[in-house]
Design a protein that fits this description.
single chain, alpha/beta, Beta-Lactamase, six-stranded antiparallel sheet, 25 helices, about 50% helix, about 20% strand
Length: about 750
């Protein structure tokens, strides 16, 4: 789950990285688009200004040519006034000789202030340059006082028919005149200006912008650094010489930095006829601002989208984290009590056991008689009891301790208490708290517990060793009921003995050490009506081992299925053979353990063996104990009913020693009750035992069941049992458990 959560965030980071890349691509595309858009607008603007200016100047050049030729021909200056009326963009006309003296002027010209064009510093250069050219030449822009407007001097050399220079036709072209290109602001905005720059001396002829043009703009040439920087940038970008740039009617664009640090985008075109640079510049800061505005919108969308994604992923991650924590909690905690479970103990034991770890103690707690509560009142009561039990012991441990439900009614406490007196005192406090009554609904329960304690590293340096030592100590405590024991090496002797018995038992079948004996069962008339099959084990090393010692070990070690198979198959085979040999029919009782009965294929295997031996089902009786119903009565009852419907008898062994039989007895499909030997042993001098036996017999009669007393050893016991109404008897008074041959002899002697 941790990997899954990590992958969720990894996916988010991948999406985030991808979005950043996409944002970069989109932003770059937008920047390119905006830049290209401004370049396109500026290129179109330069093209418009260049074409319009060239057309205007070309038309004015034609006018000057016509006017000059006409003056040479007619010597009449009145034509100037006529053309002036037709051409509102012209402020005044004049004709000067080659010495710079005005010979003719239009009537609006102030004839008292006619300067010599070759002597006036502002006009000398352009006038003399005009006389060297066939084309029209532009003079420096100046303020025309007569009209109150700025104007551009335009001059054209006039030649006679022999090609001799006669003079220069001059006029003032008003910037703020009737012509649209000069009248209207053609710039793109505050961030842009358009200029006409004279090439030979870098004087500005005209500027169009949103700001008012300063007077000195036309009085001083532009800084050579600016125009040279523009031309050098174009030259480097397009790999062309300056001369080549002038020869091509192409618009070039380049980015440069002014001497004041201002970064601009420039588009420029050269008009070779009139030696003009048409230049437009845009402040790059405006382009950046335009881009930043769009970029901020992208960022806003990006952040908004990823905030949504982040919270979505966070919700998923939190849900996944909670799910993972829940799964981890479920995997490491007991569902019922919410305590840590066995899996947690094994996974986290390295937090307690490691090199240099401080010593600690392991308590092993086992509840006494918990199964009786479960069986008598149901699992719901048992669950409530377990929850309260867990709460009580949890409330009595230190914060650095851990309480674990090992399983069933077993609990473990890990504690850093190590002093023996302190451990015993704490355990006694636990037992006292545990022993207080439990109230569930209207019922009160008193439950004890047994505690075994092992210490690390004194009693083991691994979890298994500590659990084994604490378990051994707990079983010692169980001998005394509701007590506590610290592990001692001497206790291990009994454990090792059990281990030795278990090891020998695993090979007992192969060594043919197990065999069957049969104890006769007598009816009220003294006749033998059946036998109880009992298993015996004679080991070459351990000697004769009683069933009450090796049967529990077989069940605990998982050997019971093989042992049970042996008991059933051997008993059925021998009893079938004996009945055939003697020509008699009698009942054979088989003890069935809890482990056998809970096997999923128990009944199928039993039926299979009965069919194989061909034993009559009515000749077979299964003896079960009350502990069988502690496991799962909902599973057991239908199975017992099926067995009974097949004609197999069912006997309840050791009846009266448990707590649940009276509440469920009426539901059970049984045929016989067996009075436990412990009651029969004290029947002669224990009134309570007598009353218990009478009650059991009364219950059996009321339910129309046979009642069998086991452990009958004297005639006096038999007499009292018969007086109480007991139907059947079994014990040493009649016969000990007999081998096959001994049973054969016994039955033969009893034959009529």
């Amino acid at each position: 789950m941790a990997i899954l959560q990590k992958n969720i965030w990894m996916l988010f980071y991948i999406l985030l990285a991808g979005a950043f890349i996409f944002l970069g691509i989109v932003s770059y595309t937008k920047w390119t688009s905006i830049t290209k858009e401004y370049i396109t607008d500026q290129t179109n603007l330069v093209k418009l200004a260049s074409n319009a200016t060239h057309t205007l100047l070309l038309s004015q050049e034609m006018t000057l040519n016509i006017l000059g030729d006409q003056i040479l021909k007619d010597k009449d200056p009145r034509i100037m006034d006529d053309l002036l009326a037709l051409n509102p963009s012209i402020v005044a006309f004049g004709f000067a000789d080659i010495e710079g003296n005005y010979l003719h002027v239009s009537s609006n010209f102030n004839k008292t202030k006619l300067p010599n064009l070759r002597q006036l510093a502002a006009t000398k250069d352009s006038f003399e340059y005009t006389m060297t050219q066939q084309k029209m030449v532009l003079g420096r822009t100046y303020f025309i006082a007569a009209s109150g407007r700025w104007g551009i001097p335009i001059r054209k050399s006039i030649f006679d028919k022999d090609g001799k220079l006669i003079g220069v036709m001059t006029a003032g072209l008003a910037i703020e005149g009737a012509y649209k290109i000069f009248t209207e602001n053609i710039s793109l905005g505050d961030y842009n200006k358009v200029m006409l720059i004279r090439d030979r001396d870098h004087f500005v002829q005209f500027e169009s912008s949103n700001q008012e043009s300063p007077k000195k703009l036309y009085e001083e040439p532009l800084s050579d650094n600016f125009l040279n920087a523009v031309l050098e940038g174009v030259r480097q970008k397009y790999h062309l010489s300056i001369q080549a740039l002038k020869e091509k009617p192409t618009i070039y664009e380049v980015e440069i930095t002014h001497s004041d640090g201002k970064h601009v985008q420039v588009s420029i075109k050269y008009d070779s006829r009139y030696e003009l640079w048409v230049l437009s510049e845009i402040d790059c800061a405006h382009i950046n601002d335009d881009f930043i505005e769009s970029f901020l919108w992208y960022i806003l969308v990006f952040i908004s989208m990823h905030m949504v994604l982040f919270f979505l992923f966070k919700m998923i991650a939190n849900a996944e984290s909670k799910r993972r924590k829940d799964l981890i909690f479920q995997a490491t905690h007991d569902e019922l009590t919410q305590l840590f479970n066995r899996a947690y103990l094994h996974q986290h034991m390295n937090h307690w056991i490691y090199e240099g770890a401080p010593p600690f103690s392991l308590y092993y707690l086992d509840m006494d008689h918990f199964k009786n509560v479960n069986d008598s009142f149901g699992h719901q009561f048992g669950d409530i009891l377990l929850i309260e039990f867990a709460r009580r012991i949890s409330s009595l441990v230190r914060k650095d301790s851990i309480v674990i439900r090992q399983g069933g009614d077993e609990f473990i406490i890990l504690s850093y208490r190590i002093d023996n007196d302190e451990l015993l005192a704490h355990s006694q406090m636990l037992l006292q708290e545990i022993a207080k009554p439990y109230t569930i609904n209207q019922f009160n329960f008193v439950i004890g517990a047994s505690i075994g304690i092992a210490k690390y590293p004194e009693h083991g340096n691994t979890l298994d060793m500590l659990l084994r030592a604490a378990d051994i100590a707990m079983y010692e405590a169980k001998k005394y009921k509701n007590s506590v024991r610290l592990f001692a090496p001497s206790m291990q002797e009994g454990y090792l003995n059990r281990m030795n018995v278990e090891n020998e038992l695993r090979t007992a079948l192969d060594k043919h050490e197990l065999y069957m004996v049969y104890q006769p069962q007598i009816d009220g008339s003294g006749k033998s009506y059946g036998v109880e099959a009992l298993v015996r084990w004679q080991n070459e090393t351990l000697g004769l081992i009683p069933p009450d010692q090796f049967i529990p070990i077989a069940e605990a070690s998982g050997f019971m299925p093989q042992l049970g198979q042996f008991i059933i198959s051997t008993t059925l085979k021998e009893m079938k053979a004996l009945q055939i040999e003697l020509g008699v029919s009698f009942q054979t009782s088989l003890n069935i353990s809890v482990k056998q009965f809970m096997e999923t294929d128990f009944l199928e295997n039993l039926i299979s063996q009965i069919k194989h031996i061909k034993l009559e089902r009515v000749s077979l009786c299964l003896e079960i104990t009350e502990s069988l119903f502690i496991e799962d009565i909902e599973y057991i009852l239908p199975l017992l009913q099926k067995v009974h419907d097949m004609g197999i008898h069912i006997s309840m062994d050791d009846f009266g020693t448990g707590y649940s039989s009276l509440s469920i007895l009426r539901k059970l499909p049984i045929d016989e009750l067996k009075i436990d030997k412990s009651f029969v042993d004290t029947i002669l001098d224990d009134i309570t035992a007598q009353k218990m036996i009478q009650n059991i017999i009364s219950i059996g009669k009321n339910l129309e069941l046979y009642v069998l007393a086991e452990g009958v050893e004297t005639q006096e016991q038999e007499r009292i049992l018969k007086e109480f109404g007991c139907d059947r008897f079994q014990g040493y008074f009649y016969a000990k458990p007999l081998t096959y041959d001994a049973l054969k002899a016994f039955l033969t002697s009893k034959a009529p």
